[in-house]
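Sample intake sheet
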Amino acid sequence: MWRKEDGRPQNPNEISTGSSTSTTPPASAAPGPANSKPLSSVPTSANAVACLSQGIRIKGEITGSEDLFIDGNVEGKVTFRNAVLTVGPNASVKGDIDAREIVVRGRVEGKLDGSDRVQIWHTAKVNGDIRSSRIAIEDGAEFRGKVEAGKPPTRPAENPPAKKFESAKPKEADSNLEKPAPGAAVAGAD
């Protein structure tokens, strides 16, 4: 199809509405294993401040406080406790991940500890334990490990040690008590 305005071919997925053009996905592009998009066309996280792209390989510990999108290879612990960590479809992470929210689209070998939420997409392969208050695993995802879901158990406040109450009797009254006979067994004596 040709558009008269600029003389270029119109994408069949574009709908012309006056002066603006909007793109709508075809009805056959519903998400799922049968109709999944090519891995390279999956959009990155819109909120991610930083991105480790597909050609990057990192060995070592990664920490931060802003959202991160990983689409490369990482070996080591990844800690983003107050941020969202997204493991992209081309990513491979070998190490523990600790973040507020974890989204996995690629491969992870290690423990996932999401304080708020962990989401495993249908393209993900996870080999490790998951602990989070909310967990979502899409149909088709590969997962091997243990899951701890829900709010962590609240521990009752520890009772303070019992106070020793002294006798209300004056000390002089204690001296009037009978003393055991010499050689007699007394309870509590060493």
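Comment: Confidence is low (pLDDT under 50) at residues 12-43. The two ends are 102 Å apart (CA to CA).
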